[in-house]
Amino acid sequence: MKKEAGFTLIxxxxxxxxxxxxxxxxxxxxxxxxxxxxxxxxxxSISQKAQLTMTRVSRELMELxxxxxxxxxxxxxxxxxxxxxxxxxxxKIKIASGGSPSGGDELVDYVSSFALTYNPxxxxxxxxxxxxxxxxxxxxxxxxxxxxxxxxxxxxxxxxVNPRNNKNDGGTx
Length: 173
Fold this sequence. Notes:
Layout: H1 9-62, E1 66-71, E2 74-79, E3 82-89, E4 92-97, E5 105-109, E6 111-118, E7 140-147, E8 154-161
Antiparallel strand pairs: 1-2, 2-3, 3-4, 4-5, 6-7, 7-8
């Protein structure tokens, strides 16, 4: 009797199953790595957009000399070089010169929430309004939520600005 060389059908099937399992795990690892990369890239992009926006809004509000409209999602203010409005429109934050909220330049898009709080108290409520003296405005808290491009939620950012050209000596009332 002669010995035949080769594989049996059972050996081939078992080998294919083992290769399939290894390939599935390798595929899941690659997909997880790609998702992590995309998540990190989106976070970096959102953080950069938020940082640029917060820096611009902070610089604008730091230099204000008077406020004519102070709403939670809109502020019209005067600086030494003119009147401006920061406002939200169509999930975007815009800034317009001339004090009119129209035709402004876009600062950031994918905005889910934008809120300004004037002289915030411990509970986060505004304690200053336009009817008060501008010298009593010592802080403007900016809260900004941007929506992630993959729809997995919002990312929150916050900062506080202390106006310096409103003749406030820096003390709280």
